[in-house]
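FORM 12-B: Structure-to-Sequence Request
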């Protein structure tokens, strides 16, 4: 594997942490004003974009667009599970874990062939 294979995955992982906080971090603060939440989320999302856009551009040298999207979605599920457990203090049921597992299994088909 080359840097062009690994760097986009790492960049997408970090960018997804930012995006997960932008989308769901405010759920821990339900009384925060909605406008403030939106503006803060936009600020956080800026950092996500500064990583995701170059990651996809670099990754497209070695991955198809479908493969990049699939990588992103699997990373999203992994990050979201950690975020739910550690930030929101929500447990992940076995049915949710199984569902995410089936999604990951389906994602594997994108890389076959």
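FORM 12-B RESPONSE
SEQUENCE OUT:
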């Amino acid at each position: 594997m080359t840097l062009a294979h690994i760097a986009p995955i790492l960049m997408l992982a970090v960018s997804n942490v930012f995006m997960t906080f932008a989308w769901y971090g405010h759920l821990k603060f339900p009384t925060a004003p909605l406008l403030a939440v939106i503006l803060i989320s936009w600020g956080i999302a800026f950092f996500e974009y500064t990583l995701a856009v170059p990651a996809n551009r670099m990754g497209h040298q070695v991955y198809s667009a479908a493969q990049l999207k699939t990588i992103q979605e699997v990373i999203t599920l992994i990050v979201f599970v950690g975020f739910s457990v550690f930030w929101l203090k929500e447990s992940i049921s076995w049915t949710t874990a199984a569902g995410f597992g089936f999604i990951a299994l389906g994602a594997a088909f994108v890389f076959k062939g």
